[in-house]
Amino acid sequence: MDKSRKKEKKKSISYAKWGYYFIIPFFIVYAIFTLYPQILTIYNSFFEYYRDGLNIIGPRFVGLGNYAKLFETNTAGYVPIVRYTMNTAILWVIGAVPQFLVAMLLALFFTSTRLNIRGQQFFKTVIYMPNLIMASAFSMLFFTMFSQVGPINQLLISWGVVDKAINFLAIKISVRSLIALMNFLMWFGNTTILLMAGIQGIDEALFESARLDGSSSTQVFFHITMPLLMPIFIYVFITSMIGGIQMFDVPQVLTNGKGTPDNTSTTLIMYLNNFLGLSKNYGMAGALSVLLFIMTAILSSFVFKTIRKK
Amino acid sequence: MKKLLSAILAVLMIVSLAGCTKPVEPTQEEGKVLNLWTWNEEFWGFLVKYYADEKIDEYTVKKGDVTIKRTTYVSDNMAYQNALDAALLAQETAAADEKVDMFLAEADYIIKYTNSDVTMDVSKIGVTDFSNTYKYTVEAASDANGVVKGVSFQCCPSALIYRRSIAKDVLGTDDPAEVQAKLNSWEMFDAVAAEAKAKGYYMVPTPLETYRTFSNNTTSAWVVDGKLNFDSAILNWMDQAEKYMAEGYAPGAYGIWDGEKNDQMFASGKTMCFFGPAWYFNFCMGNAQDPDKGCKGDWAICQGPQAHFWGGTWMLAATGTDNPKTVADIMNTFINNEEVVEKLVRNEAQFSNNQVVNNKLAADASYGSEFLGGQNDVAVFAELAKNIKFQNITPYDQGCNEGIQTYVREWLNGQVTKDQAIANFKDYLKNVYPGITVE
Predict the structure, then answer these.
(1) Residue A231 pLDDT
(2) CB B93 within 8 Å of CB B43
(3) Are B106 and B42 a contacting pair, CB within 8 Å?
(4) Quick check: bond before A261 cis, omega within 30?
């Protein structure tokens, strides 16, 4: 009798199970909304499965057929997935590089005890503002502003800069620049705030002693701020990169889903969206999604490792 | 860990079971809510004005005890079809008040729905009298066996819509018969385009404006035996478009719904010719009707170089509807209630789908359209309606028509070569319609 009671008591002291109970909701949600669809996507990628009109074709097992199709040269003479990966990469780089530079500079200014900028709260709110607007609304706004009869063209003509309206949305470089500009405007505030949090987490004493030792601002930045900011920087970099791979709404709305001109602004997710339109092509879309998943995983681990080593 | 796994599995099972609720038995009584799916507000506006008893808000009206609710998706990029397909395929398991009862479909894809079980035989719910409607509107709404699945409230012969003042300057006349005589073929049209240009005008607002006149006069369909097919009419249109851009007969290669093109409809516009049916000038030429910047009355219509039709909205009855009586009543009202139909023509500048009303107004000397400077448009359209042939239709037409215009535009804008544009178009179709073979 005594013995068993003791045992019960011992059992109830273990609090480990509560830990599990508390994390169960996350795993349930994860399993239903992420893991299960993910497995289904991988499964579907091996099948021919789409809609022709209202008729459902398949599912018919085709092995790696869908993957092979993704790497076929199309009627226009290029491999779509290669071109769209390049598009996505270019669009991300030309938007993200200035974004990191500006955000880093602003974060340094705002956190610098020597500058001690006034009205910080105001500026922080203002630079974060664009992020509150829905990307598609933002894109629609740019579409209207830069159309051939839009205000930008009217201004350019009335100032005498050009004598005929420029078709911004039909020129490769301007479409890409506009997409990059929008992504920049929407995200630099967010990055600034994250980097600021990172910099503020660094012990102020380090900056002070460096200054006392006579190091320049550049030296402080490269030898104190940057190395200690690395974990946050990696986080910001990887999330931005994943966001870049998933770039969709801005170019989709700006080019009406066609990635004009000549598919030079079609991103990988826009390509995916084409499969998921009317034809609900789960097979091809699944194969593309799996490739994207692998690509994201490889890139993330690569970036993580290289930056970590330094 | 095992417990955790079993918990997850249990939850997954419950969730998957929850998905299989029993389908609701169709009720014999008329349902409380009629769900109408549309891609714009045109027909809805008529329904509110001429059918409903009471307007509740922008998306709801009441007729007797039945609440009519509108669900609207834009047509662009096939968003409407996309959402509608999902709703129709889930029809069996949807609750009675959530079911699609009636939906609108356009000429470009109506065949997809009529040839499917998602639409029902309207003669079974009491829509049987098509004697006054135009034959092609009934054919278009019928399946392969001739079973009628819906009706249209309009008939859509497309006309050449021209600016009177510009025509006077270029042709020396604005009389429809004389203008028609000078624009009776594409050769004549091209010749006049050169004259218009010499006087500082544009013949068309964009080379895409004439697309429907060509695409509607094809001798073969977009898809033949499951294969993509370029009809010679489409190729001819591409040649014309190239020429018009090169010669400067159009201000730019704008899309047909673009603001740039619509600006040409203002009084300040320099464009002489537009193409479209009755719904076009009352529903899409808002700029021309603008009280300040517009030019109401400075327009007229004639057949133009080639007879054709464009679009048209059909009401289809969805299988599984719980409001068969109201659905039938709406359909009958908009084709056979002569009082309502006449209002559509007089107040809304529609060309109706009731020949009795149309012929009456066509013969009425006192009837004239204010927008067209007093011209009796019904008389013109009644003549043109005789030429409509509903043929070479496939379920893939929206993607083909939308796609070719998008990609040809890139070529006209000088971004790609002609071959590249066609290749891009084919690649696009391959992605959107995996069911067709694109060589």
Answers:
(1) 85
(2) no
(3) no
(4) yes
- Selected residues 53-92 of chain A with any CB under 8 Å from a CB in chain B: 53-55, 57, 74-77, 80
Kindly report the backbone phi and psi dihedral angles of residue B307, in degrees, each rounded to the nearest multiple of 5, phi listed first. Answer: -70, 140
pLDDT of residue B22: 40
Closest-CA residue of chain B to A75:
B423
Tell me the nearest-neighbour CA distance from B436 into chain A, angstroms. 9
pLDDT value at residue A152: 92
pLDDT level of residue B93 (50, 70, 90 thresholds): confident
Separation CA A92–CA A277 (nearest Å): 25
What ipTM was assigned to the predicted interfaces of this complex?
0.76
CA dist B206 → A57, B15, B169 (Å): 39, 54, 21
Is residue A165 over pLDDT 90? no
Sequence-distant (6+) residues with CB within 8 A of B172 are none
**Homologous superfamily of domain range B33-155+311-363:** Periplasmic binding protein-like II (3.40.190.10)
Residue B188 forms contact with A (CB below 8 Å): no
**In the prediction, which pLDDT does A230 show?**
87
Average pLDDT along chain B: 87
The answer to whether the beta carbons of residues B50 and B344 sit under 8 Å apart is: yes
Interchain CB contacts (distance < 8 Å): A and B: 118
Fold agreement between B33-155+311-363 and B157-309+371-432: yes
Residue A247 pLDDT: 92
Instruction: State how far the Cα of B294 lies from the Cα of B265, in Å rounded to an integer.
Output: 7
Number of domains in chain A: 1
Q: Is A156 contained in some domain?
A: yes
Angstrom distances, CA of residue B400 to CA of A284, B391, B396, B429:
21, 16, 6, 7
Q: What is the 3-state secondary structure (H, E, C) of chain A?
A: CHHHHHHHHHHHHCCHHHHHHHHHHHHHHHHHHHHHHHHHHHHHCCEEEEEECCEEEEEEECCCHHHHHHCCCCCCCCCHHHHHHHHHHHHHHHHHHHHHHHHHHHHHHHHCCCCCCCCHHHHHHHHHHHHHCCHHHHHHHHHHHCCCCCHHHHHHHHCCCCCCCCCHHHCHHHHHHHHHHHHHHHHHHHHHHHHHHHHHCCCHHHHHHHHHCCCCHHHHHHHHHHHHHHHHHHHHHHHHHHHHHCCCHHHHHHCCCCCCCCCCCCCHHHHHHHHHCCCCCHHHHHHHHHHHHHHHHHHHHHHHHHHHHC
Rounded CA separation A267/B73 (Å): 24
Domain B157-309+371-432 has CATH 3.40.190.10: yes
Per-residue pLDDT reduced to its tens digit, B213-231 = 999 888 899 999 888 999 9
Instruction: Answer whether residue A116 is part of any domain.
Output: yes
Q: What percent of chain A has pLDDT above 70? A: 95
Please answer whether residues A144 and A154 qualify as being in contact, where contact means their C-beta atoms are separated by less than 8 angstroms: no
CB contact under 8 A, B7 and A148: no
Residue A103 is predicted with a pLDDT of 93
Q: Which helix (H) or strand (E) holds B108?
A: none
A36: distance to nearest CA of chain B, Å? 9
The domain of A240 spans: 71-276
Reported as a single tens digit per residue, the pLDDT across A74-114 is 888 889 899 999 999 999 999 999 999 999 999 988 888 77
Domain range summary for chain B, segments of one domain joined by +: 33-155+311-363, 157-309+371-432
Length of chain B: 439
Domain of A234: which CATH number?
A: 1.10.3720.10
Q: Report the first-to-last Cα separation within chain B, whole angstroms.
A: 54
Nearest CA distance, B116 vs chain A (angstrom): 7
Q: What residue type is assigned to position B42 of the chain?
A: E
* Residues A67, A117: Cα–Cα separation, whole Å: 54
Cβ distance B250 to B203 under 8 Å? yes
